């Protein structure tokens, strides 16, 4: 690999690593405020988190484990991500700090809304 190719590979690796970092509640709120499409990007982020959490739960079942939440035939659609997130923040407003990950809040929302029996 040439030195310039190695440098480019390093930049790409750092970019991917930083993109994989969890977004905090504070960062998400900041994204939501950015105009003109910030609120839309914030919603897409929540949808991606929801889909990732759902896939992780399904993977746990495929591997014979217990999922963290159980949809069990109930409705869970990507467009519900924002309302689940906001409801969880309202329900437990004293628990969540601005530097906590959005993924944690949405994970708790799914556990509370779709408990396993």
Architecture blueprint of SSEs:
Elements: H1 3-19, H2 25-33, H3 38-62, H4 81-91, H5 102-113
Helix pairs in contact: 2-3, 3-5, 4-5
Question: What are the secondary-structure elements, in order, as H or E?
Answer: HHHHH
User: Structural class, from secondary structure content?
Assistant: mainly alpha
What oligomerization state is this entry in? single chain
Number of helices, counting only DSSP H or I runs of 4 residues or more: 5
Low-pLDDT runs of 5+ residues are 1-18
Give a count of the beta strands, DSSP E runs of length 2 or more. Answer: 0
Largest sheet: none
Mean pLDDT: 86
The structural domain count equals 1
The portion of residues forming beta strands comes to under 5%
Query: What is the overall silhouette?
Result: globular
Distance between the termini: 54 Å
Helix content: 55-70%
Question: Radius of gyration over alpha carbons?
Answer: 17 Å
Task: Explain what this protein looks like in three dimensions.
- The chain has 117 residues and is an all-alpha fold.
- It has one domain.
- It is 63% helix and 0% strand.
- It contains five helices and no strands.
- The protein has helices at residues 3-19, 25-33, 38-62, 81-91, 102-113.
- α2 (25-33) runs antiparallel to α3 and α3 (38-62) packs across α5 (102-113).
- The longest helix is centred in the middle third of the chain and has 25 residues, at 38-62.
- Residues 1-18 have low confidence and may be disordered.
């Amino acid at each position: 690999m040439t030195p310039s190719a190695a440098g480019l590979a390093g930049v790409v690796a750092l970019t991917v690593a930083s993109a994989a970092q969890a977004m905090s509640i504070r960062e998400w709120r900041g994204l939501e405020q950015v105009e003109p499409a910030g609120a839309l990007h914030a919603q897409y982020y929540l949808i991606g988190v929801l889909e990732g959490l759902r896939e992780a739960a399904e993977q746990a079942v495929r591997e014979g484990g217990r999922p963290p939440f159980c949809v069990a035939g109930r409705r869970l659609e990507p467009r519900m991500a924002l309302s689940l997130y906001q409801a969880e923040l309202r329900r437990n407003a004293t628990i969540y700090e601005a530097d906590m990950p959005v993924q944690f809040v949405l994970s708790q929302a799914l556990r509370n809304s779709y408990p396993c029996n």
